[in-house]
Structures are given as structure tokens and as C-alpha cells.
Automatic annotation (TrEMBL):
Membrane-crossing segments per the record: none
GO biological process entries: regulation of DNA-templated transcription; transcription elongation by RNA polymerase II
PROSITE patterns linked to this entry: TPR, TPR_REGION
Name by which UniProt lists this protein: Protein CTR9-like isoform B
Keywords per UniProt: Repeat, TPR repeat
Biased composition (Polar residues): 948-961
Residue ranges, compositional bias (Basic and acidic residues): 895-919, 966-986
Ranges: TPR repeats: 197-230, 342-375, 376-409, 713-746
Length: 986
């Protein structure tokens, strides 16, 4: 083993010191060094050996003693060794300051390092090693520019100074100038080819940062060739293998990472990567062990940040959000800027959302967005947070941005649809449909929640058939298909006919027959919504089957009880409805919806005291925050004010004011509550404020018309009542008729009674009678309708008889109506339960007597009307005969004129034809004359020489010129007799 020899002062002897047997107490060796006044280079050798053996305190003790004032004074002429000792101390404290996490201790270490370097500079300010040490100190402090200046001072004097080149390479690497850093590392290799393997590690890192992965891998592999146990190169190669995201690469990378861990079990980076691997394999206990070890062996901020992040993720995945939040926060604190390591900010934001700390989560996700401005997950998280903070529009903007960045992100469209449901159902439906399409195209299973939302929106828009298909798609296969397809139609009919809404025997029979009667929990809501849709489509029988199916599998599903109660109520089975609501209350006796419905049913059953108590219980169950319960209590007060014919004005005013107060309270809590607004308007109308109430009713009507789920026939009726009270009978009639058609399919006898009353007040007697007869057809046991019909017939007859002019038909109709009225009143008078319906027998007899009196008078009027009608018919017959005679005369005259005109036309036609015939004969005559003349000329050719001798040439030419166009006359001279004959004939 190596040894050093300390010369004995004033002797040729030496003290041998074995370096592997250095004393534990450095004071022993220091005594020898001082006593023998050993050279300072021996001090350095022994101190360095202590450092190699990990005996840091002894190392520091020797160096501090070697730099004491006594040593400086004694070795004043020994400059280099003194500087080397001081620089060693400066480097030691620079390292301590670099790894220290506490700011105060860090600064103290840096101050000591600075003092030692400054002391070394005072010995020789040009010593390169001192400047290199100062540069390393400045790098540790993060003062990159000052460090670069220190290294350049050395390099200006010696371009090939290896420590300065390495320091400047680190500076350029920290600046992000990886190409310049790479060139400096290459230069080091050129200057010092046998440099340590760590230099090539720097080359590999530069290549990696420059994207030259193959060359980086070669550099790291070269490091391993030179130093097979170089942990840093193993980790670098392992990271490169892991980044391939391939199974083979991941296996190879983990093998290398494990080897690095075996070589040095306290390498924090290897521990972090192993923890990351075990996190994805679900071995959380290993994650926690490895990260805790990494935190114990390192003080490097970024490395600790990764360790805390791994530990936080482990707790996060296990649902321990409190611990996860603590470790995410610790990870964030180890990072100076989000750009250095942004993942803990994202995880911390997620945990804060779970814990309800939305403002802190918002801050963290915004930091993530600064680093990754187009990250869809972050945008969706921010959108969710803004919605929770009440800034819905801003939340929608973030989700929309996410959908634009990645139009194939089905989840983003799903979340966008959920945000738009309350503000824009059309846009929400489009977003849901897009998400549905993307899930389908991606081969993914479409979430049931998405299909349910699509179906609900289609339901709300009135697209009932589309909604039905969507709900069926969401439900898939199941026992419900047999009912939807009417395979069990007979069972449905039997169940609905008996109204056995509580009977579950149907499903037991299906199970006994081998059918699989199951309703998965995630399909219960869809099945309920489908049943609700069937109610809207008037298939309440199938709907009741589905509600009962839900209760068969989930007996505590309160809403199913309430819907069955609503169906029973619609069929006027109040007792069954109350029984079903009580079943719901057995599940939860403080359910406000069930209590409110029970109170309403009790009110309908005329159980006022019990209804009031029930409604108060419903309101108290929610501390007055349940709008429905509060409004039901308001309705009770309103009906209490108006229900008695003999009203107590003081009590009436009290109840009306209480009703108004309750409606107003709901409006303050929920300004868009249509039912509260309707109730307030009813109270105002009852107080005579018709204009104000009419405006409110109109606004409520317009708002309710935009939703299928909001069915408010009452507001139409109330608006018609206001028109009636104001005397605007035409609008009142129109409003009643529209309400009947829109909500009741013209089958509600009460609204028909309102309509008849309006016709009555408008003196539209026949319309009134027709309306009442329709109502009687719908409610034949309602004696009030019959009485009103008799009164209307009586009034119609009296008004007709009072006319100054009336036809026999009108009088006959009057007689018929009077006979009907007498028959109606007689039937009412003969009824055994007359008094139960509130009728006075004497009053009915009075009506009968009056009708008989009118009937007698009508007969007299009928005779007079018939006599007058006969006279009118005779006059009309005479007038008709006169008109017929006049018509016959007119037609005869027209016939005569027609014949004369026709003869005239025939004569004219004959004359024209004769003229045309004469013209044709005249035109044919000249042609025959010319032919005969030409023949005569040809026969006189033998006389031509004689004529030529007798005529001079000049004369002949002259004759030709003059008669060139007079051939007929020349011929006439030659053959005079024939020419004259032709002229006469012509």
C-alpha cells in the first residue's frame, strides 16, 4: 500500500506514514507535520487521502491547520502549496453550499468559500487554479455570467487549460448553448485524450440536448467502456431506452436502471426512475420506499422535486388527497419556475379540485398553461374550475379552445355539452352528438351518460322518436325490450287495466319463466327517462311497467314511486296516488318532493288541515329552501282565501298576502321560477290588478313555451281569466280553446265550463250551449253542467223572442231549445241527490215554469212567423215567375239576334266566294289571247321579205323601239279582226 515519508528535521531519517492506516484522530498526524516542519505538499497528500476515505472532518482539519496564520508566516515563501490548500478549502465549501437546502447555511458556506479564494488571490492574483475555483463557486451560486468571466480570465492566458475549459463548457450548457458546450468538451479531449470518463459524459449530454440521440448514445456507451460502473452513463442510457415507449426499450432501460441502483443504491435519479416504473405497475409500497430513500440521500432541488412528485402521485392514486396535496406542494417548492418541472403543478391542481379549493387550483393550472398553452387536459380543467367559480362563459371558452386544438377529443366535446346544457340546449346537443360520433369512430364504447344526455335534450326539444331511439341505444339488451316491442302486450294490458301499480308479480312470473330480469345500476336513470318519455307519448301503461321494474330491483328509488303516483293522479285515482306517495315516504320520511305531492293530493281531496300540516313539514324539511314545498304552501293559502262563497274579507286578505309572500320568497331565491311568478300574478289578479298580472302571465307563458318539460296550462287559463275579467271575451275564448287543444286535447270539462261561461257573457248563446253539451258528454254525472246548459237554453230562447225581427226557423229553434231546457230542468228536479249538488228544487221549478211560459209565447210567435213566412214565400214565388218570364224573353231576343247575325255572315261569305270565282275567270282570259296572237305571227313568216323591202331599216328600228313593250297592239295591227274580238271579249 502507498505510503508517504515525512523527513525528520535535522536528520536524514524519515517517518513513514501508511496512507491506508491514517490515524482516526488527525491531531496525531498534524503534530508530526508541525514538529518536523513537513513540506506543505505532504499536508495536501494526507488531506486528500482522508477525503478519499470519506473522513471529511479530518480532511477539513488538516487543510484549515495548513492555512492558519502560523503556517502562512512559516511557509511565506511557499506560494503554490499555500494557494492549493486554500483552493481546496474553497472548493470544499463551494460543494457544501451547492448541496445545502437551507438558504442561511447555504450562504454561510458560500461566504467561507469566497474568503478562501480571495485569500488565495492575495497570494497570487494570477493563479489559474484560483480563478477556476472562483468560477466553480459562481456556478454553484447561479451567477453564470460572472463564472464565465472567471473562466475566460484563465483561458485568455492558457487556451488549453483543461479545468477552465470544463468550467466554460458547463457555463455554455447552463446557458442552453449546447453546440458551444460540445465544442469545448471536444477541445478538452483533444488537449487531454486520457481525461476521465466524466468528460465524455458531458459530450453525451450535449448531443442529447441537440437531438443527436445516436451520437449521445455512443458517447454514453464509451463512458461505460472506460468506466463500467459509471452510474450517470447507465442512467442516461436507461432514460433513452425508456423514452422509446416500446416494450423492448422499457425492459432494457429498467435493466440498466436497476444495474445503476445495484452499483450505487443511493443514486437519487435512479431511485426516482425506479419509483416511476413501480408507480405504473401499481406497486405503491415500493414507490414510497424508493422515493423516501431518494429524499434522504439528495439535497438537489430538482431531484427532490421529482421524488416528492412520485410520492404525491402514489397517494393521489390511492385517493389520499390530503397527503397527496402535501407532497405535491413540497415538489412545487423545490422548483424555481414551472418551466423546470410542471407536472407537480398539474397534480396539485387536480387534488385541490377534489378538495374544493378552486381558486388555488386555478392558479396552478394557469401555470401549467403557461408552459403548455395548447394542452387540452389543462384547458378542460380550467373550464371546469371557472364553471365552479360561477364564470360559466369563461369556462365554456376554455373547453371550446380544447375542442378546436384537438377536434378528435370526444371527452372535450362531452364536457362542452355538459357546460352548455343550461344556457344553450341546441349547442349542447350538437356537442354531445359530436362526442358520440367521435367515440364511435374511435371504436370506443359510448358512455351511457352521454347517450342519456342526448336523449334528454331530444326529449326537451320535442324530438320524441329520436329520444326513444337514443334511450334504447343506451339501454341495450334487456328485459325492457320485450315491453318496448310489445312482446308482453297482454301482460301490460292486464296490469294497466287493474291499475295495480304496486304489483310485482309480473316480474316474478318472468323470472320463473327463465327470463333474466336485471337492471344495471348505471342504466336505471336511462330506464326512468324512457318511462318518462312514454308518459309524454301517452303510453302510461308501459311507463308504469318500467317504474315498477325499477322498484322491483331498487325498492328505494323514490322518484319511481312519485311517477306512479302522478299517473294514478292523472287517472283521478287520488287514493291510490296517496298510497304510492306514502310508500315513497317510507323510504325517506323527509323527502320534500314526496311531502309536497302528498300535500297537494290532500288538498285535492279537500283535506285542508292535513294538507297544510304536510306542506309545512315539506318546507321545514329543507329549511324553507325547497321552492316546490314553499309554492305548495302558497297555493294552500290562496285556495283558503277563495274557497268559500261567503268570504271573510279580513281572513281572505290575510291568506292572499301570505300566498304573495311565499311566492315572492321563491322568486327572490330563484328569479326564473315560472311557477312562483304565476302564483304571484294570480294573487295580483285576485286583488284586481289585471294589467300587471296579465303582463306577468304573458311573460311566463312565453318562457314556458320553450321547453317540453315545463307544462303550464294553468298560466293559459289564468291569462284567459284576466281577459274575461277585463271584458275581452274574444281573446278569452281564443286562450281557452288554445289551452284545451294544446294540453288537454279538447277533453277537459272544467275548461269547457270556463269557455261556456265566456260565451254566455258574450251573449254567444248557441256557442255556449254547444260547449256545455261537449262538457256534459265528457262528464255526464256533473249536474252543474246540466243546470248551466238549461240556463243557457233558456237565455237563448228569451233573447230570440225579444228580437224585433225573427224568422220562423229561429222561433222553431227557440221552441226546440225551450223543450230541451224543460227536459233538463225536469231531470234535475227528479234527481234524488239534488241537494248534494247544491241545487234548490224551488229554483229549478221556477226555471221550468218560466221555460213553459216562454214556450207558450213562442208558439204564438211561431204561428205569426209561419204566416209571415208563407206570405214571403208567395211573394218570392211571384217574383220568381216574373223573373223567369223576363229571362225567357231575353233569351228569345238573344236567339233572334244570333240568327240574323249568322245569316248576315253567311251572305257575306257567299258574296266573297263569288267575287273570288269571278276574279279567277278574269285572270285566266288574257293568257289565251296572247297564245293565239303568237300563232298568227308564226303563220305570216312567208310575207317577211316583202315587208322588209317595203320598209326602210331606220323605220324598222324605230318601230321596234316604240313597240318593244307593246306586242299586243302590234299583233292587233297585223291581225286586226282577231285583236278586236279579244278586246270585246275581255
Amino acid at each position: 500500500m502507498a505510503s508517504v515519508y515525512i523527513p525528520v528535521q535535522n536528520s536524514e531519517e524519515e517517518v513513514r506514514v501508511a496512507l491506508d492506516q491514517l490515524p482516526r484522530d488527525a491531531s496525531d498526524i498534524l503534530d508530526i507535520l508541525k514538529a518536523e516542519q513537513a513540506p506543505l505538499d505532504l499536508w495536501l497528500i494526507i488531506a486528500r487521502e482522508y477525503f478519499k476515505q470519506g473522513k471529511i472532518d479530518q480532511y477539513r482539519q488538516i487543510l484549515e491547520e495548513g492555512s492558519s496564520p502560523e503556517i502562512d508566516e512559516y511557509y511565506a515563501d511557499v506560494r503554490y502549496e499555500r494557494i492549493a490548500i486554500l483552493n481546496a478549502l474553497g472548493a470544499y465549501y463551494s460543494y457544501l453550499g451547492k448541496i445545502e437546502t437551507k438558504q442561511r447555511e447555504k450562504e454561510e458556506h458560500f461566504i467561507l468559500a469566497t474568503q478562501y479564494y480571495n485569500k488565495a488571490s492575495r497570494i497570487d492574483m494570477h493563479e489559474p487554479s484560483t480563478w477556476v475555483g472562483k468560477g466553480q463557486l459562481l456556478l454553484a451560486k447561479g451567477e453564470v455570467e460572472q463564472a464565465s468571466a472567471a473562466f475566460k480570465i484563465v483561458l485568455d492566458g492558457d487556451h488549453d487549460n483543461v479545468p477552465a475549459l470544463l468550467g466554460q463548457a458547463c457555463v455554455e450548457f447552463n446557458r442552453g448553448r449546447f453546440s458551444d458546450s460540445l465544442e469545448l468538451y471536444k477541445r478538452v479531449l483533444q488537449v487531454y485524450p486520457n481525461c476521465p470518463a466524466a468528460v465524455r459524459l458531458g459530450i453525451g449530454l450535449c448531443r442529447y440536448k441537440l437531438g443527436q440521440f445516436e451520437k449521445a448514445q455512443q458517447a454514453f456507451e464509451r463512458v461505460l467502456q472506460l468506466d463500467p460502473e459509471n452510474v450517470e452513463s447507465l442512467i442516461a442510457l436507461a432514460i433513452m431506452d425508456l423514452r422509446t415507449n416500446e416494450a423492448t426499450g422499457i425492459r432494457t432501460g429498467m435493466v440498466k436502471m436497476q444495474r445503476a441502483f445495484e452499483i450505487y443504491p443511493y443514486c437519487a435519479m435512479a431511485l426516482n426512475y425506479l419509483a416511476n416504473h413501480f408507480f405504473f405497475t401499481g406497486q405503491h409500497f415500493l414507490v414510497e420506499q424508493l422515493t423516501e430513500t431518494a429524499l434522504a440521500v439528495t439535497n438537489h432541488g430538482p431531484t427532490k422535486s421529482h421524488s416528492y412528485y412520485n410520492l404525491a402521485r402514489s397517494y393521489h392514486s390511492k385517493g389520499d388527497y390530503d397527503k397527496a396535496g402535501v407532497y405535491y406542494m413540497a415538489s412545487v417548492k423545490e422548483v424555481n419556475k414551472p418551466h423546470e418541472f410542471v407536472f407537480p403543478y398539474y397534480g396539485l391542481g387536480q387534488v385541490q379540485i377534489k378538495l374544493g379549493d378552486f381558486k388555488s387550483a386555478l392558479s396552478n393550472f394557469e401555470k401549467v398553461l403557461e408552459v403548455y398553452p395548447d394542452n387540452c387536459e389543462t384547458l378542460k380543467a380550467l373550464g371546469h374550475i371557472y364553471v365552479q367559480l360561477g364564470q360559466t362563459d369563461k369556462g365554456q371558452d376554455f373547453i371550446r379552445k380544447a375542442t378546436k386544438i384537438d377536434p378528435r377529443d370526444a371527452q372535450a366535446f362531452l364536457e362542452l355539452g355538459e357546460l352548455l346544457i343550461l344556457s344553450d340546449t341546441g349547442a349542447a346537443l350538437d356537442a354531445f352528438k359530436t362526442a358520440h360520433t367521435l367515440f364511435k369512430k374511435g371504436g370506443q364504447e359510448v358512455p351511457i351518460e352521454l347517450l342519456n344526455n342526448i336523449g334528454v335534450l331530444q326529449f326537451e326539444r320535442g324530438e320524441f322518436e329520436l329520444a326513444r331511439q337514443t334511450f334504447k341505444e343506451a339501454l341495450g339488451d334487456g328485459v325492457w325490450l320485450s315491453f318496448i316491442n310489445e312482446e308482453n302486450k297482454s301482460s301490460i294490458d292486464a296490469a294497466t287495466s287493474t291499475l295495480q301499480f304496486k304489483d310485482m308479480q309480473l316480474f316474478r312470473d318472468l323470472e320463473s319463466n327463465g327470463h333474466h330480469v336485471e337492471v344495471p345500476w348505471d342504466k336505471v336513470t336511462v330506464l326512468f327517462n324512457l318511462a318518462r318519455l312514454l308518459e309524454q307519448l301517452y303510453d302510461s301503461g308501459t311507463a308504469s311497467i318500467f317504474y315498477r321494474l325499477i322498484l322491483f330491483k331498487y325498492p328505494d328509488y323514490i322518484d319511481a314511486y312519485l311517477r306512479l303516483a302522478a299517473i294514478a293522479k292523472a287517472r283521478n285515482n287520488i287514493l291510490l296516488s296517496i298510497e304510492l306517495v306514502n310508500d315513497a315516504l317510507k323510504v325517506n320520511n323527509k323527502c320534500p318532493n314526496a311531502l309536497s305531492m302528498l300535500g297537494e293530493l290532500e288538498l285535492k281531496n279537500d283535506d285542508w288541515v292535513k294538507a297544510k300540516e304536510t306542506l309545512r313539514t315539506a318546507s321545514d324539511a329543507t329549511d324553507g329552501k325547497d321552492s316546490y314545498a314553499t309554492l305548495s304552501l302558497g297555493n294552500w293559502n290562496y285556495f283558503a282565501a277563495v274557497r268559500n262563497e261567503k268570504r271573510n274579507p279580513k281572513l281572505e286578505a290575510t291568506h292572499l298576502e301570505k300566498a304573495k309572500e311565499l311566492c315572492t320568497r321563491v322568486l327572490i331565491q330563484h328569479s326564473s321560477n315560472l311557477y312562483a311568478a304565476n302564483g304571484a300574478a294570480v294573487v295580483l289578479a285576485e286583488k284586481g290588478h289585471f294589467d300587471v298580472s296579465k303582463d306577468i302571465f304573458t311573460q311566463v307563458q312565453e318562457a314556458a313555451s320553450g321547453s317540453v318539460f315545463v307544462q303550464m296550462p294553468d298560466v293559459w287559463i289564468n291569462l284567459a281569466h284576466v281577459y274575461f275579467a277585463q271584458g275581452n271575451f274574444t281573446l278569452a275564448v281564443k286562450m281557452y280553446q288554445n289551452c284545451l287543444r294544446k294540453f288537454y286535447h279538447n277533453t277537459d270539462s272544467q275548461i269547457l265550463l270556463y269557455l261556456a261561461r265566456t260565451h254566455y257573457e258574450a251573449e254567444q248563446w248557441q256557442d255556449c250551449i254547444k260547449t256545455l253539451l261537449r262538457a256534459i258528454h265528457l262528464a255526464p254525472s256533473n249536474y252543474t253542467l246540466r243546470f248551466d246548459a238549461g240556463v243557457a237554453m233558456q237565455k237563448f230562447s228569451a233573447s230570440t223572442l225579444q228580437k224585433a225581427k225573427r224568422t220562423a226557423d229561429e222561433v222553431r229553434a227557440t221552441v226546440a231549445e225551450l223543450q230541451n231546457a224543460v227536459r233538463v230542468f225536469s231531470q234535475l228536479s227528479a234527481a234524488s241527490n239534488l241537494h248534494i249538488h247544491g241545487f234548490d228544487e224551488k229554483k229549478i221549478d221556477t226555471h221550468v215554469g218560466y221555460c213553459n211560459h216562454l214556450l207558450s209565447a213562442a208558439k204564438v210567435h211561431l204561428e205569426a212567423a209561419e204566416h209571415e213566412e208563407q206570405q214571403v214565400r208567395q211573394r218570392q214565388e211571384l217574383a220568381r215567375q216574373v223573373a223567369l218570364a223576363e229571362e225567357a224573353r231575353r233569351k228569345a231576343e238573344e236567339q233572334r239576334k244570333f240568327q240574323m247575325e249568322r245569316r248576315k255572315q253567311e251572305d257575306e261569305l257567299k258574296r266573297v266566294q263569288q267575287q273570288e270565282e269571278h276574279f279567277r275567270r278574269v285572270k285566266a282570259a288574257p293568257s289565251s289571247s296572247i297564245a293565239r296572237r303568237r300563232q298568227a305571227l308564226s303563220e305570216s313568216d312567208d310575207d317577211e321579205p316583202l315587208l322588209q323591202r317595203q320598209s326602210s331599216p331606220v323605220r324598222q328600228n324605230s318601230a321596234d323601239m316604240q313597240l318593244s313593250d307593246g306586242e299586243i297592239r302590234d299583233g292587233d295591227k297585223t291581225n286586226g279582226d282577231d285583236g278586236n274580238d279579244e278586246e270585246k271579249q275581255y
